[in-house]
Design a protein that fits this description.
Structural class of chain B: mainly alpha
Distance between the termini of chain B: 22 Å
Number of helices of chain B: 13
CATH architecture of one domain in chain A: Orthogonal Bundle
Distance between the termini of chain A: 23 Å
Radius of gyration of chain B: 24 Å
CATH topology of one domain in chain A: MetI-like fold
Number of helices of chain A: 13
Number of domains of chain B: 2
Radius of gyration of chain A: 24 Å
CATH topology of the largest domain in chain B: MetI-like fold
Helix content of chain A: over 70%
CATH superfamily of the largest domain in chain B: MetI-like
Oligomer: heterodimer
Number of strands of chain B: 0
Strand content of chain B: under 5%
Largest interface: A-B, 110 and 100 residues
Strand content of chain A: under 5%
Largest sheet of chain A: 2 strands, antiparallel
Shape of chain A: globular
Order of helices and strands of chain A: HEEHHHHHHHHHHHH
CATH superfamily of one domain in chain A: MetI-like
Largest sheet of chain B: none
CATH architecture of the largest domain in chain B: Orthogonal Bundle
CATH class of the largest domain in chain B: Mainly Alpha
Chain lengths: 290, 276
């Protein structure tokens, strides 16, 4: 029923969002690329000059970059491992017939709705503080020396906080996938004598493969840009021990005012994220056709 | 067909699930409890769980320490404002893509999605400098613009998946029965589109309320929403656990409530329809 008339109307209706998003994508990205080739420091206005790839070679050869890259990968990998294994476990548990299932599900997904600055500060002060934190009290009452989480194992502490925030998301997606599994198929396998483990490996896991892939890709996109949790807990420290790529670029730009260097870092982050994005877009695109 | 499960097994599973569920929920519960303690009770060792002197003084003190109501209001304005603005821009385009799709519709959708995947640090520096030069730093209007843009792809996508489920035949049937375009929109389309629009609205308010990259970088004081305001507690002054808890409880309560209503939409909205 698409006539020329409705088609041009459709184009007109799409124009605002397409134009806005195009501008939002192209203008900042273009400027960041442009800045990344300049020597540009906010403390030395008017001294901007073209430096070619110098910012990139400085940024990439800075030991902080290597630390940040490692930390970024550890943070993404660590949180993914915890949330996926935990998410599958919780989904299996919530899929069982239990009393008060709805309430337990609400309890489990609640952390997702807590704003990042709140969860980070609550964990930092009320749980991980070596003197007044609850974990320190538990350690002391069990006769151990309390751990100063954010000073001695900063990255792991950030991973724990972020994993707590993302576990609900993984659980919810896994549960949605699990509930669409054909009950009769499981029953048939059970009657044929398949135990819990083989049912899980041969029926449940393959059925959830898609959901797991979606969780990995979507979480990766968000986790590459973890920022608030680091800002309010460790400020990237001690040293660069909990600095990720996002935080490094932020620090270089807004704390050291090195716009050129930070822009080069921003472009490196964009390239990294794009590698992940290509896979995600393909996966969702395939689903759109089906 | 539901399988018969022994009561014993069900009880064991219930116990395990409740224990783990409460464990995950505990930090939130602890925050809420601490918000009703005195600062002394908040750091008591051994910790006090329920039997302490309940007080609401923290809530009043949080307000007097800094204008909490202002930051709360900023959060409301920026999350609701950016969502409504986003819907206004997104509804026509999602509508067009769902009801008069062309060969390129899919490409447009995928491209919109890809803009969401650009890490914010790739845009931070130019946006910061542009905002500085235009006087938009620490302004509500600036924040609303940025939040609208970053959530626009999700809004379009969610609306598209909902609109796509409205059968086109119904529209044709209405047209054949002689309904005018205005009547078609008011009596046929709107009632079918409202649930999808409402879910999109809900999820987006949640996402905007909790956004903590742009809000932290672009606001400092007068336009600061709760994310930025709470971050100011990272440099402590004396005893502050109870006050931090009170400020946090008020910041997360509205969203927890909204969130519980939108569990289903959450999956759909955040997976771009890939998992339903």
């Amino acid at each position: 029923m698409a006539t020329t008339h409705t088609r041009s109307a459709a184009r007109l209706m799409m124009a605002p969002s397409v134009i806005l998003l195009f501008a939002w994508m192209i203008v900042p990205l273009g400027m960041t690329i442009y800045f990344s080739f300049l020597r540009y420091n906010l403390l030395m206005p008017g001294m901007e000059e073209f430096t070619g790839f110098l910012n990139y070679s400085f940024f990439l050869s800075d030991p902080a970059f290597f630390d940040a890259l490692t930390n970024t990968l550890l943070l993404v990998g660590g949180v993914l491992a915890i949330t996926i294994i935990g998410g599958i476990a919780f989904a299996l548990l919530l899929d069982q017939p239990i009393f008060g299932q709805g309430i337990v599900r609400i309890l489990v997904i609640a952390p997702f709705f807590v704003m990042p600055t709140v969860s980070a500060l609550v964990w930092k002060n009320m749980f991980m503080n070596p003197v007044n934190g609850l974990l320190a009290w538990i350690a002391r009452s069990l006769g151990f020396q309390p751990v100063d989480f954010l000073a001695t194992i900063p990255l792991l502490s950030v991973i724990i906080i972020v994993a707590w925030q993302w576990l609900p998301f993984a659980t919810l997606i896994m549960l949605t996938a699990l509930q669409s599994l054909d009950e009769e198929q499981k029953e048939a396998a059970e009657m044929d004598g398949a135990g819990f483990v083989s049912r899980f490996i041969y029926i449940v896991l393959p059925h959830m493969a898609r959901a797991i892939t979606v969780v990995i890709l979507i979480e990766t996109i968000f986790l590459l840009s973890v920022f608030a949790e680091i800002l309010v807990t460790t400020n990237g420290g001690p040293g660069t021990q909990s600095t990720n790529l996002t935080y490094l670029v932020y620090a270089q730009a807004l704390l050291q005012f090195d716009i050129g260097g930070a822009s080069a870092g921003g472009i490196v982050a964009v390239i990294l994220a794009n590698i992940v994005a290509i896979f995600l877009v393909r996966l969702i695109g395939k689903n759109l056709e089906a | 067909m539901a399988r018969k499960v022994s009561t014993k097994r069900k009880l064991v599973m219930t116990a395990i699930a409740w224990t783990l569920g409460l464990l995950i929920f505990f930090p939130i519960l602890w925050t809420v409890l601490t918000s009703f303690k005195s600062e002394g009770d908040a750091i008591a060792s051994p910790p006090v769980f329920l039997f302490f002197h309940w007080t609401t003084e923290n809530y009043t003190e949080v307000q007097s320490r800094s204008d909490y109501a202002l930051h709360f209001w900023n959060s409301v304005i920026m999350s609701v404002g950016s969502t409504l603005l986003g819907l206004l821009i997104a509804i026509p385009s999602a509508w067009a893509m769902a009801f008069s799709p062309t060969r390129r519709t899919k490409d447009v959708l995928m491209w919109m999605l890809s803009t969401k995947m650009m890490p914010p640090v790739g845009a931070l520096i130019p946006v910061y400098l542009i905002f500085r030069d235009m006087g938009l730093l620490d302004s509500r209007i600036g924040l609303v613009i940025v939040l609208t843009l970053i959530n626009l792809p999700i809004i379009v996508w969610m609306l598209y998946t909902y609109f796509k489920e409205i059968p086109g035949e119904i529209l044709e049937a209405a047209r054949m029965d002689g309904a005018s375009l205005a009547k078609e929109i008011v009596y046929v389309l709107t009632p079918m589109a409202v649930p999808g629009i409402a879910s999109t609205l809900l999820l987006n308010i949640i996402l905007a309320w909790n956004e903590a990259f742009w809000t932290l970088n672009l606001t400092t004081s007068k336009a600061a929403p709760l994310t930025t305001f709470i971050a100011s507690y990272s440099s402590p002054e004396g005893l502050f656990y109870a006050k931090l808890s009170a400020a946090s409880t008020m910041a997360i309560a509205p969203i927890l409530i909204l969130g519980w209503f939108s569990q289903k939409q959450l999956v759909r909205g955040l997976t771009f329809g890939a998992v339903k």
